[in-house]
Write a structure and sequence with these properties.
79% of the residues lie in helices and 0% in strands. The chain has one domain. The two termini are 29 Å apart. The protein is globular, with a radius of gyration of 16 Å. By secondary structure, it is mainly alpha-helical.
């Protein structure tokens, strides 16, 4: 059974529950791996720098630019080329804006902790970015979505390479998910 068929059978509540469960697993895996891979848990905290200019410039502004490009593509390209099986629409369409905010924040934190804070730090930029693409399996069968997730993944990895700051990648990831979630909610 395909992922989109499974999603179609789930209620909105079940879908939100499964999303939060998978993100909780990513978060807990990040914490567990940090104990195993780093000499001290405090070694991990140097990846968080409260540099507002860096966070806004690299995280927020870059995220907004990517979202604007994604919206332009969505408006100009036939729907069949950018349809992920309706999964993103199911996740966001019937949610309130505060719920979209929470979902985007949880996803950004859990995925960035794991993919940049653990995997990229340990195994490198290319491996972490490639694995991030593979985890987003629903995009792999559509060439345009695949190109989009590859660009997004390697861009997030690059932002981390440049800044070595998880708060930048979390801000970027959050902006993309939150703004696209609102876009999906309000578009006709």
């Amino acid at each position: 059974m395909k992922q989109e068929d499974i999603i179609k059978q789930m209620t909105d509540k079940e879908l939100k529950h499964q999303l939060l469960l998978s993100q909780s697993i990513f978060f807990l895996l990040s914490i567990a791996l940090s104990f195993y891979l780093f000499d001290h848990i405090f070694d991990w905290f140097h990846l968080f720098s409260i540099d507002f200019i860096e966070i806004i410039l690299y995280g927020v502004v870059t995220g907004i630019v990517l979202v604007l490009l994604e919206i332009i593509i969505d408006l100009k390209v036939p729907k069949k080329l950018v349809d992920d099986g309706g999964i993103n629409e199911r996740v966001f369409k019937n949610q309130s804006i505060p719920t979209i905010f929470i979902i985007a924040l949880v996803v950004a934190i859990s995925e960035e902790f794991l993919f940049r804070g653990i995997i990229q730090v340990t195994f490198g930029y290319v491996f972490a970015s490639s694995l991030f693409v593979v985890v987003h399996i629903r995009y792999l069968k559509k060439p345009l979505l695949l190109i989009s997730i590859i660009i997004t993944s390697f861009l997030i990895g690059y932002l981390f390479e440049v800044t070595q700051n998880l708060l930048v990648t979390i801000a970027f990831h959050f902006m993309v998910d939150f703004l696209l979630g609102i876009y999906i909610k309000v578009k006709r």
